[in-house]
Every structure is written in structure tokens, then in C-alpha cells.
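pinging the channel bc i need a second pair of eyes. not urgent but kinda urgent?? the chain im working w is below, pasted from the shared doc
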Amino acid sequence: MAVEFPTHAEPAAAHSRGPLLQTRASAFQTAQRRFDAAADVIGLSDDARRGLREVKRELTVHFPVRRDDGSVHVYTGWRVQHNISRGPAKGGIRYHPDIDLDLVKALAMLMTWKCAAVGIPYGGSKGAVAVDPHKLSQNELEHLTRRYATEIAILIGPEKDIPAPDMGTNPQIMAWIMDTISMHQGHSVTASVTGKPVDVGGSEGRVEAPGRGATYLTLEALKYLHIDEETQTVAVQGYGQVGRSTTRLLSEAGLRIVAVSDSRGGIYNPNGLDLAALDEHRQVRGGVSGFKKADAVTNEELLELPVTVLVPAAVQDVITDHNAARIRARLITEGANAAVAPEADPILHERGIFLVPDIIANAGGVIVSYFEWVQDLQAFFWEEEEINTKLHHVITRAFYEILHTSVNKRIDMRAAAYALAVQRVANATTVRGIYP
């Protein structure tokens, strides 16, 4: 069965304004609703719920950066740790103009469950700065990054909280953060961040890890579903780094890529896309729109195409209760965080559409980040083939553990993933006890 979400999880203030007022749940309220549903499935005690529903720490910083024109701008950033019962906190750093503390808290909670779901010994955290990185010069971006790293240095470190790239950040930014922390310590602290360039302690295979993990899970899900189509077709919404690597790897596995899209629009050819020609077109035109060997489709239309596999790898809430009934894919691999809204989950489940939820679908990055951290701590590095083999082992093991829970408890895959993850974190929290 699909797990229904409680309808009472809205701010207390909303109740006082009368029943006619409809308020949209915040990102953190949505995260709490997913937790509440999982806690109901496993029968979690009220005492355990109280601690896990809230974040452990939230740090807000306001810091000045001198721009290239000599002016000074004050930016706001955050670092939030949700839970560290199973190990040091782990989570990316996002640079985006439309972000706030509420979303950072939600993403930190998601990281706790994601790490627990795939069985790596981390808690969850997240960081962000409210900034459009594309509007900064390289010099300004470095100054902003180093000052932000200095402000949150009281929380981060190899044994405490390990940042990684996220939306708007990249390996170079991680290198600046690592160098800043190292300057404070007086020696190189390579394990203080992951997702770094290989030259400064980064791991082979890290860049493609999210797409590779999504590919491994898609192929395992197709195997489990026994889909006997002669050629399985794929549509990918979000032709960024994750979407491109997933597209390429699925194509190499023998699936036919028939549609892709980016923020400007999408393209569709039921006979399959020429990915090499598409990449040449994208480099010249800056996007996939206008590709001559395919028809134009909108991002909304792409979601409803008759394909075997749909990979929403762009933004959140693209599949909702408004369009879930029109989705025609047999399998959805949720490449982006919260691409499927909570209200859409039961609709998809009732229609027999199999979902590989974000909590494991895009966990390839954090798994290989864990490998990078381990390599940095021991100063011994593995080759990419070994990294990919280890990734395949960890993520497919997690998939079948979640599938087993789903079948045994007769719940959908997202509910099973959350139930398994919440149980693991609750067990660790209970065993450790309350200090003092």
C-alpha cells in the first residue's frame, strides 16, 4: 500500500486563522511529514520522534565580501546539522539566490535518512549561501567561499561535519574550503571536504557518481519488474551533470534515450536521440532546444511521454497530484531531491508505477564521497574501477534491502526507504542514550 501523509502537519498559527485558509507546507514541514509517516510504519515511540523531528544545530552567518568594484556586500549563509548519532554529519553546500533556512533544514534531514538508507556511517547536514554564483567573478567567488568557510569552521571538520558540492558549487569551491580549513589548522586537512579535485585528495569516479548510482538502480529495478519490452525507452528531465551522465550510461547499457530537457525546454524523438550530435549542439547553442533531429517538447510534456523509464533530475515538485494520473512511464528513478511531491506518491503507487525514490536514487554522490573521506583519512587511494565496483555493491545492496521492506510491509518504495532509514537512526540514538 501507499503511505498516506498526515493532514495536520501545518503551523499552529494556521489553525488560528480559520478553516478557510489554505497554507502550502514549507520544505521542512514536508520533510517532517515524510518522517512522521515512516515513524508510524515502524511504531516509533513519542520520545524518539521528538528528537528526530528537529535539527540538532542550525548556524546562520552574515558576512561581508569585497566585490571587484570595491563595494562591500553582506551575504547570508547557513550550516545545519540534523543528526549525528551514526557518525559525523555529511551534506553539500548550495549556492543559490532562492534559498532559506527552512529549505536547508529540510535538506539536512534528508541527508540523515539518505546516509542511513544506504548504510554509510554518517549523519545529515546541509549548508548554503543565498547568492547567484553566476553573477560573481572567479575572484569574488573565491573570497565569498573562503569567508563563508571561515564562518562555519566552528562546525566542520573530518570528525565533525564534512561538506561536499551541491547546486551552484563544484570541486574548485571544495578545494578553496579545504585550503581555508587547512590554513586555520596549519597543515593539510584533505578529509575536511569531499568532491574535491583529484589533485588535492579527491576520489576517482566522484563526478559521475550520482548518475552512475541512478543508472545502477534503474537497471536493477528493470530486472526486478521483468519488463519485457524489446527496447526500453528513457526520458530525462534535467540535462545537467547528473542527467547527462545518467543518459550516457543508460544508453551504453542498451536503453534508448528518446527525450531530454533543460531549463529552456526539451526534445523528443521516439526512435532515439543521437547523443553525440546532441552534445555538439548543446556546446554550440548552450542547451538542447532547437536540436534538428528531434521535436520540441516542454518540460511538462516530457513527464507524460509514453516511455519505460522517466528520470526527473532537475528540480523538486515536478510530479504532483495534478499530473501524476497522466504519467505513462513504468518506472521512475527520482534523480532530483523531492521531484515527486508527497501527494503524488499514492497516485503513482496505485497506478502500478514503480518508484526508485530520491533517498537512494541520487545517493551515488554521497556514497563515493564516503569513499573519498576514507581514502583521505588513510592516505591510500583506489582506482576508478574499484570505486565503481564498491559503489555498485553498496547501492544495490541498499536497493534490495528497501525492496525487501517494501514487499514485507506492503508499502511503497519511498515509505520503505524512510522506514528503514528512520529505524537505523532511531536505533543508534537509543543505544547512545541522552547526555548527561
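so Confidence is low (pLDDT under 50) at residues 4-22. and Residues 384-409 form the longest helix (26 residues). — does that match what u expected or am i reading it wrong
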